[in-house]
Amino acid sequence: MTGTDNCNGAQPITATMVETRRNLSATCASNYELTRVWTLTDPCGNTTTAKQIITVQDTTKPVFDVTIPKDTTVNCDNVPTAPTVTGTDNCNGNQPITATMVETKRNLSTTCASNYELTRVWTLTDPCGNTTTAKQIITVQDTTKPNFTTVIPKDTTVNCDKVPTAPTVTGTDNCNGNQPITAAMVETRRNLSATCASNYELTRVWTLTDPCGNTTTAKQIITVQDTTKPNFTTVIPKDTTVNCDNVPTAPTVTGTDNCNGAQPITATMVETRRNLSATCASNYELTRVVDTHRSLR
To answer: What's the gap between Cα 100 and its chain centre?
Structure first.
């Protein structure tokens, strides 16, 4: 800045300038007041002053220098880690500003803890309190079926007294940590014979259900049959030779069957007679046959 003096002709006089700064905030270095005072002094020491006050402030929001993740929907075991988000401010030079992040969770189901919504809000704050925010919404869901950890028994054919006990079947779920899930089992029976109750088919269906209602099923078919002959519990009389007036009465013969529990079975008896003499009717042979297969089943 220059000036002239009435006694100095056209010779320009250059003013001296004194600048003072007064901070307007204890925390924001970008809010301050500059006072500039120019002083013209002629060769005889006469002076003239002029003053300018410049109020400096930071009203501009900071800006993000990373891309904010987009809204997304993910499975419960694939929730992304929150990134570190930074930005810059026009009054802060090249110094990066790290955003603060607040994450809130909103349950989307009263029964499934793995169905929820995460809202992540990042806030950039410059030293003068100007803020910029960005938001990401992550919808979390459980759509994956649980897995069996127990080996499911294979289909099999067994005798009626060897039907295997149904095992306890368990599994795990990707959203349930290491907590075991016990499968529910439904067993149905289908008779394979109208006359033999020991010939039937068992179908066992195990269902694993995770807390979000996803299910996995497994099935075993057991074909049950009775192929074992019954056993006598009565001692069968031995072959014998007797007088005609001393023919023994046929005893009642009983037995048991492996598929019949403790219930006794009474045998049926077929008796045949063969004459040994054409002239003596008292000489003959009796054959008593108990058909174990036919009579005890």
So the answer is: 31
For residue 22, count CB atoms less than 10 angstroms from its CB and return exposed for 0-12, middle for 13-18, buried for 19 or more.
exposed
Task: For residue 293, give the H/E element and its range.
Answer: helix 292-295
> How long a stretch of residues is the chain?
297
- C-alpha R_g of the chain: 52
Q: Are strands 254-256 and 170-172 parallel, antiparallel or unpaired?
A: unpaired
Return per-residue pLDDT of the chain as tens, 297 residues. Answer: 999 988 887 789 999 999 999 999 998 889 999 999 999 999 999 999 999 999 999 999 999 999 999 999 999 999 999 999 999 999 987 789 999 999 999 999 999 999 999 999 999 999 999 999 999 999 999 999 999 999 999 999 999 999 999 999 999 999 987 789 999 999 999 999 998 889 999 999 999 999 999 999 999 999 999 988 888 888 889 999 999 999 999 999 888 888 877 688 888 989 999 999 999 999 999 999 986 554 333
Q: Give the architecture-level CATH label for domain 63-141.
A: Sandwich (2.60)
147-225: in CATH 1.20.120? no
Judged by DSSP in three states, 116 sits in: strand
Running DSSP on this structure, what letter comes out for residue 84?
P
To the nearest 10°, report the CA torsion of 21, 22, 25, 26.
90
Q: What are the E-state strand segments in 126-268?
A: 131-141, 147-148, 156-159, 170-172, 181-182, 184-191, 200-209, 215-225, 231-232, 254-256, 265-266
The identity of residue 25, as a single letter, is S
